[in-house]
Amino acid sequence: MKFNHWLALGLFLPGITLALDIYPQVSGSIVEMTTPGKQVNAGDILVKIDDRQAQLKLQHLEITGSIKQQAFEDALLTLNQTQELYDRMVASHRDLDIAKIEHNAKKREHDVHNVLIKIQTIELEKYQIKSPISGIVKETPQLRNVTNIASPKVLVVIE
Prior knowledge:
This protein is an alpha+beta fold. The strands form two sheets. Strands 1-8-6-3 form a four-stranded antiparallel beta sheet, with no helix packed on it. Strands 5-4-2-7 form a four-stranded antiparallel beta sheet, with no helix packed on it. It has three helices and eight strands, in the order αββββααββββ.
């Protein structure tokens, strides 16, 4: 239904050009921006925002993730050893239950941490603004306005 409206709009108003305002999803200093008048295709990078802090956060999460992975593997080893001792009637049922609880807790911690890594990876993608459509860059902010802090403002207009 919307396609028909756009088609009708194009038929009745052939001289009208549609423009798309591009807003950032994160705040930060702009390190690279496309220039006005440039032809862009869908998927081309329009703006790069300083992502060093987000990169460091991802690196920290990955290193912490390796520690969580090791703790999980250690808990699995302990569980297997306790199971073996229990099967030989050397360890008590309580010891086996404690090892299972510890193993399950370490697994949940590891799984949650992996989700945090995925979230940060998605967040990192927001520091590169890509063109959703093909067109010509109509305008960008002046160089004195290249910091995008707190309130969202139009960074790029594409026609």
